Amino acid sequence: MAIDKAEAPTERPTFEPQPDEKSDLSDEFASPEKSDEEPEWQDLLGSGSLLKKIVKEGQANTRPQRLQKCTISYELSLADGTFIERKDNEEIQLGDCDVVQGLDVAIGLMNVGEKCSLKIEPRLAFGGVGLPPKIPPNATVVYDIELVGVEPEDDPEMLSVLERKAQGNKKRERGNWWYGRGENTLAIQCYRRALDYLDEVETGIDALNKTEEIPDSTLQELLEDRISVCNNMAAAQIKLELYDAALNSLQTVLRCQPNNVKALFRKAKVHKGKNDLIAAQKCLKKADEVSPNNSDVQKELALISKLIQKQKVTERELAKRMFGDKKPVKEEKTKDSKHSMLVWSATLAASFAVGLAGVAAYRLKFA
After folding, report:
1. What is the distance, to the nearest Å, from the Cα of residue 228 to the centroid of all Cα atoms in its chain?
2. Topology of domain 40-153, CATH
3. Tens of pLDDT along 110-144?
4. What was the pLDDT predicted at 27?
5. Can you tell me where the transmembrane regions are (predicted)?
6. 197 and 159 in contact (C-beta within 8 Å)?
7. What distance in Å separates the CA atoms of residue 328 and residue 334, rounded to the nearest whole number?
8. What residues in the chain have per-residue pLDDT under 70?
9. Hey, where are the domains in the chain?
10. Three-class SS state of 116
11. 61: phi > 0 → left, psi -120 to 50 → alpha, else beta; which?
12. Do 51 and 42 touch, CB atoms closer than 8 A?
């Protein structure tokens, strides 16, 4: 069962300059005039998978720390120069899966105001999936990037409800993006970060907005966003066979929405993974009652029912074999007993015949 369209990964918007416009960032990285010293590519990881060429030095000792907010401007292209996208003053959190791994590592090694070119191989960029239709699978990409500024991480407890909602949904959408690419571990990390913003904080929601009244509709939206995150996180956890963790995520959903069909369906998947077919069937039957025309539920319910029947047949055959092993032993004992009786009877008959012969011989002798 796929995630809702509202929850589905959204394609990041692109900002392409018009043909007659001149890109300041492109001009900055262009080198029409030959310099005395050409910058050299630095191998940041020692494997050739992440190369960096500094175009402009930044302020010394201003590298960002993990989870700090970084403002970046960049232009992305393929290794052959094909333009992909351009973004100005994009805000990300360092080390929080907001960008591809190679870019995330490189930003952490930049100073504020620094401009550089990055050449990133597929495994640290868009991998074997690519970014259809613009980036093909297994493509090396080039970023011309500037680190514009760095700010401290936001404390969720100091944000308003609307700010928390916006940040939480941004993390959720990024989790959906990773999930759609099959990167379930990174998706789970994003979903957990989303819950940091969408979950109730220690001081309570009302304490954050003493001067303004929070409408019930806003609180309901926040709850629904939190439920969507838990539901999607469970889907990623199931993919990784983290069944206990998935069950905890689904229990959070079902406590608030006992008839949530997706949660019931995924809970059945968890029980199936743990080989508890009866519990899985129970979840699916409830989901079928709530949504009787759901083809995914009906298909899975039919499959589980067949597995249960097959399991019962297997158990009967196993029991039959277990008890059947004792029958040859009994038959062997019966055969041994019959054989002993025959031997004993033959011996007795022979002894009786010898006795009669002796009596007859005695009578003839003294007749």
Report:
1. 15
2. Chitinase A; domain 3 (3.10.50)
3. 999 999 999 999 999 999 999 999 999 999 999 99
4. 54
5. 341-362
6. yes
7. 10
8. 1-38, 200-212, 324-367
9. 40-153, 157-202+220-316
10. strand
11. left
12. yes
